[in-house]
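Chapter summary example.
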Amino acid sequence: MRPVLRPATVLRPVTSADLDRFDTEFAGPDGPGPYQWFGHTPTLRLRGLLDERGLLGGDENMLSVTVDDTLAGRVEWFRRAWGRVETSACWEIAIGLFAAHRGQGVGTQAQRLLVDYLFTHTRTERVQVCTDADNLAEQRAAEKAGFELEGRVRRAQWRAGTWHDQLLYSVLRPLGPPAPNPNPNPNPNPNSNPNPSPSP
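The structure predicted for these 200 residues follows.
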């Protein structure tokens, strides 16, 4: 039996043409899906940030998701803080895929790639994601991407005329190898005899 080959998922910088496609794909409630439709919102700000800094290197950032070189959606990350921003900031990520690319494992791959990217290129200790308490697909994708459930945030998101509970997931930076022992001598007293003679 031949192995099942997963599509090649890649994250790359956003282009102006990508934003045009996002406007088209996410223009109505059927585009982003029931858990990500917040009404019609202007997109001129995104275009300004693209011109200014390529939607990178700030508190709100974005990369495009491609599958086998075909645009499939986007991932975003936003600075959050559990205390003072200078000392307690982390990243919160989000993902939006076109309908044709959902349910194929692309969301899991894209979120895993983004976590790896953030741990490689930023000094953050923590990456988190929030999703609707009823969004089982994103919950499974987050868990497969390495996130662990931390708890429920009650009535946190206003959408579709009512408040919705959110589930908070996080993944922490992997611990590196232990630091080398600066004193390899296990004997704490360098003047003592490590092999004393037995008493007569």
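To summarize the output: Residues 106-121 form the longest helix (16 residues).
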